[in-house]
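ok posting inputs for the magnesium ion job
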Amino acid sequence: MTIPIKQLKLHKLNMRLKDPFTTSFGTFQDKEFFITELIDDDGNRGYGESVAFSSPWYSEETVKTNLHVMEDFLIPILKENQISHPDQVSDLFHPIKRNNMAKSALEGAAWDLYAKREKLTLAAALGGERKQIDVGISIGIQPTVDDLIQTIQHFVDAGYKRIKIKIKPGWDVEVLREVRKHFPDTPIMADANSAYTIDDIEHLQQLDDLNLMMIEQPLEHDDIVDHAKLQAVMKTPICLDESIHSLEDTRKAYELGSCKIINIKIGRVGGLTEAKRIHDFCMDKGIDVWCGGMLEAGVGRAHNVALTTLAQFVLPGDTAGSSRYWERDIIKPEVVVENGLINVPDQPGIGYDIDEEAMEEFTEWTRVYHF
Ligand SMILES: O=C(O)CCC(=O)c1ccccc1C(=O)O
Ligand SMILES: [Mg+2]
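and the output
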């Protein structure tokens, strides 16, 4: 049955992180993003969240390009076409090249609306069965090694099931050696966010002694060829993040042997439909996957929780509790981690309500599009 979409609301929000978060390419303090709200004739509301950052450091998309592409191309496509299932949104957006985070912000709202209309949890609508998901945490580059050790201790005590440490040239082998000394048995991985080149092979090979779960995106964002060369000479599994935008990218990385693990981010791959396709391919080929994060507020976090219920998400992801980044989140209840687990909500759709008061506090403006 056609989903009778009546309105789309685009809310522009701005939220300050509790603490700055530093990666090899820069520091985040404020997060600006869009909440998309699709409303049907029966008054159901589906929500999505955009994940592009303000600057094109992680990928070429930004908050402003997301707005441009949504307003000038994607929203008109949604207005001109009828859909009965969110998979069709992905097909309708296909002629627009890339801009995956803009696509995902709208496709996510269509998935939530669809699930609510069908009275299914988003997890069930996607085919997920887990009732609880394992969570890990991503720790930014710290001022000193002591700060890092203390921060790790804090999150280990809180129950997080694996610790991801951001690295960059000058903050890598020595730091990780020290960390390993303090935490001999903790599942630890490193994320370089593309900070190295193939000339660093010998340097990176030193990480093989540290029993890391994996090293994430050591080389250039668009270089699956050199990642294959690196994987061939390292026993530590390589995980690709920035390099994977689609099922096609996944297939090519698999055929080249560029990685053994894939970090699936819904926004980076253009939405839940493509994320699920990548998941299914990885399941078929025996590639382990986990769900990455983009410093999301509650709506995006809820989408990540739902996706992680799929069977091949066998490794703890980066979807921490709301309080890891936010003083106050925009959903009720907030996402809570206990003993390293998040309970998957059992209400229809994303399964969390919007905290309207919090939304108002963080909303800069709202635009309404009538269908
Ligand atoms: O906790 C999160 O949401 C993920 C944190 C993280 O590692 C990250 C944060 C900003 C940009 C890129 C990345 C990444 O996964 O590479
Ligand atoms: Mg990463």
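notes: DSSP finds twelve helices and 15 strands in the chain. Residues 23, 58, 138, 191, 193, 241, 292-295, 318, 320 surround 2-succinylbenzoate (ligand 1) (CB under 6 Å).
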